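Tokens as discussed.
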């Protein structure tokens, strides 16, 4: 339970005696926007926040056409985006199955002598992979922390084992069940376990060996992050990927298992993402021995996926003008505070 549970009672002041939200709230667009964004910090069982999201979403959509800038941009972005890897392409787009099997064995051995067995294009990524990890070890040696790189190396091997499983499904034209998909390779290939661990390498003494052991087990907050990343990405990219030789997405797996339409599957999967956000929010508020900055990195990674796949668009695979504007705003023309 969160230590500030009583704070949820504050939302009751926005309700009438019959339990409905006061219509007077609709006259204050900024207030509704704040209520909408605050509601996304909901946990399981907080029905009042579910109700607040539905109420504010409906009314913000109604007034959208009446707003002027900059409030129009703020509300539009809020409604579409609530406040919240080269190896991949080798497996996903460029390698033949037989080549990928050899590549996976090379990663398991982790030795440059394996490069002689690889096609030229794979030699590039394999050498870059080993050199990157060697760089990690050299950089951390001065801190006496180079041994921690082994945790990330093992996660990379696990990542490649999951990639080859998906490649095998694709090669056999096998569509796994929805349950099989989300409880096996898909969680690993989402990449959030290894990305979290890799980020920890750069966080100094905050990231103890215990932290690496913890994150390597894909604990609940990391699993929630994996679900968010995998499902949001699948919803946005499955239409593009189903037109080429690609492993079945969560959308296709759900449609196949339950015999429903694409639209119905997407609705169900969006609900799964909302539940995963609740799990992540709850874990962020739970007392833990893990330093807060380490937990925040997991949350931040989850937020990033929502940016890349906003509005159901795949801005990771095909960079849109909107994403170009975001990158320009952050890296080229940032607002100085």
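Sequence:
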């Amino acid at each position: 339970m969160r230590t500030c549970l009583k704070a949820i009672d504050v939302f009751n002041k926005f309700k009438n005696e019959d339990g409905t939200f006061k219509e007077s709230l609709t006259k204050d667009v900024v207030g509704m926007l704040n209520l909408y964004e605050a509601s996304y910090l909901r946990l399981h069982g907080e029905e009042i926040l579910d109700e607040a999201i539905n109420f504010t979403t409906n009314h913000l959509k109604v007034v959208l056409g009446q707003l002027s800038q900059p409030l129009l941009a703020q509300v539009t972005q809020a409604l579409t985006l609530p406040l919240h890897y080269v190896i991949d392409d080798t497996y996903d787009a460029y390698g033949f199955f037989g080549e990928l099997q050899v590549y996976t064995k090379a990663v398991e051995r982790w030795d440059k002598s394996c490069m002689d067995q690889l096609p030229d294009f794979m030699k590039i990524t394999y050498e870059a992979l080993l050199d990157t990890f060697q760089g990690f070890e050299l950089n951390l040696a001065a801190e006496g922390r180079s041994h921690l790189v082994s945790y990330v190396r093992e996660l990379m091997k696990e990542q490649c084992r999951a990639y080859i499983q998906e490649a095998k499904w694709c090669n056999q034209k096998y569509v796994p069940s929805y349950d099989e998909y989300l409880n096996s390779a898909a969680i690993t290939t989402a990449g959030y376990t290894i990305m979290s661990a890799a980020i920890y390498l750069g966080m100094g003494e905050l990231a103890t060996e215990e932290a690496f052991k913890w994150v390597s087990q894909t604990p609940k907050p990391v699993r929630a992050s994996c679900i968010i990343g995998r499902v949001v990405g699948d919803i946005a990219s499955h239409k593009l990927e189903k037109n080429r030789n690609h492993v079945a997405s969560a959308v296709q797996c759900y449609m196949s298992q339950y015999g429903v339409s694409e639209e119905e599957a997407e609705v169900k999967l969006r609900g799964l993402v909302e539940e995963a956000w609740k799990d992540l929010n709850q874990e962020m508020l739970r007392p833990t021995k893990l330093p807060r900055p380490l937990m925040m990195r997991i949350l931040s990674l989850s937020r990033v996926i929502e940016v890349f796949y906003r509005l159901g668009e795949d801005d990771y695979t095909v960079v849109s003008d909107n994403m170009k504007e975001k990158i320009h705003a952050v890296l080229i023309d940032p607002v100085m505070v």
